[in-house]
Write the structure tokens for this entry.
Amino acid sequence: MDNINKEIDSYIRELKNKVKQIHDLHEIKELIDKYEVLKINNKCDNKCQAFTSNGKQCSRKKKGFGKLCGIHEVSIENKDKSNQIERINIQGIFYYIDKIGNVYSPKDMIEGKEIKIGTVKNM
């Protein structure tokens, strides 16, 4: 809803600024007649807010009033239950390793992305 309000606000400000620059009433009427109709693009608000392994936003629709699609919602629930990630210091470098032995990039983890960069053989 905030995106829609921002879009409307921006549209009205732009129109007001153009009207303020014109001093002739006839030109103002012409501007209003020819001014483009406001079109609100609400597609972005319906998208899942998760990111796929290639770093792009998921293209599926959100499930209900949540922030994620059904697939990502389930995968997060499963990760919370079974795949807890620990921060481990290996020779002065902190790595993020889960119970299964998957290793995740520290930079990606800080950015909120779980991108697997390798595995640990002996856990």
User: Anything to note?
Assistant: The mean pLDDT is 78. The helical segments are 2-21, 25-34, 70-82, 106-110. Residues 2-21 form the longest helix (20 residues). Strands lie at 85-90, 93-98, 102-104, 116-119.
